[in-house]
Amino acid sequence: MSSKEPTVKPRNEAEGDVPQWQPQPIARPGGGSSPIIEKALADVRSKIYPRSVSGYFAKWRVVLVYFTQLIFYGLPWLQWNDRQAVLFDLGARKFYIFGMVLWPQDIIYLTVLLVISAFSLFLFTALAGRLFCGYACPQTVYTEIFMWVERKVEGDRLARIRLDEAPWSLKKFRIKATKHVLWVLIALWTGFTFIGYFAPIRELFVGVFAGTLGFWQWFWMFFYGFATWGNAGFMREQVCKYMCPYARFQSVMVDQDTFVVTYDYVRGEPRGGRSRRIDHKEAGMGDCVDCSLCVQVCPTGIDIREGMQYMCIGCGACVDACDTVMDKMGYDRGLIRYTSANAIKEGLTQKQVRKRIMRPRTLVYMGILSAILIAFLVSLATRTTLRVDVIRDRGALGREVPGGMIENVYRLQIINTAEEELTLSLSASGVPDITLTTADGTTSVVKVDPASNRLVPVVLRVPVGQAEPGLHDIEFHAHATSERGREVEVVERSSFYVPN
Question: Does residue 103 sit in the same domain as residue 131?
């Protein structure tokens, strides 16, 4: 994949457009200037004014914006078993995900989930480049939302350029203030929703209006709101081009058969303006009319005709713009399209390109991802909702008590991850005539509330002479019965000490 920097040509003044930037020469010790430094600094300083575009891929971007935000904003408000359906309660150290409750001991599931996400990213990148960036990345999604608000308030591309170039007036202030008020409201609601994944959102909602939130709740809500406002409202493409690490290492995950947004230089060159009346092929011209619309609609301001660049987020806006021009000129669509570098080079059809999806790299990714995913799902499906940890009383390993008994004391940390009460019958085995009772010596039956843990001191006793002095391997048995009649049994190993 080429990393050639795009060369953005000045817009046509006659069409009411303006140059995007005018780089100034940068002096060097040896004289002259560095074109690379000039281009980089000018690109950072320039403001991009993407033109609105309609088409197949634009509709898909809108659909993905609605889909992702419906999940993000709506999920915290869903209820499950009289609680929030998805809640990462850091204070109580419990993660509620619909009918599943995860504890700190379940950190392995989070680790596996991160591994699955990484391999999914590798696979999707090998198949279709930065497709995630163009359609589902939070930076892209919120930039789309903020740009939609900007277009509704300030107008499309040319109107925004004229407004920014105009001197400050009451009208300009009113328009800019309206836009930023709407941006801030969206950003604050986003920050509030984000915090709602870590604290009960209904209580947060009441606390916001009552002013009873804690310092850190206010801090993180405003922090994430400010980050949303700054990233989506001002930084925009700068995040994708200079801050996102994915843009930098994606080149090692794609190859010449990866589906990416590609300009068909074989068909398009030599480019140039022309009349619809002439036969451009007889005139020795390519299909590209050099209208620069593909540059004007690009949210990162690159020229896709200069080759594939790491700044391209694969949103397909240039595809929609180019297809519109091709329709007007009466040419075939697809001068810019999703295809592979080999397809352009070898003249492959889309059907032939799709056959190359199943190549060694993608097959390896699919195999590894499938194996990890299956193991993950099987582990989740078979995980027990009861966990018992045995802790010996180090203060008294073993002692003889009245009645001719050897006694060992333990503490059982019982964790009930189910959302129903469990009644546990406790027992032990491994030494003849061993008995188990709770610390008060009354019973071997305990109850544990739903999604909670309980520390239960227990005593094991063995008649004197039943076992040789020293350590003996034993097993604790916890047989649990739920309110619905579901039964779970856990066996944990430990040791019983018989003193000399």
Answer: yes
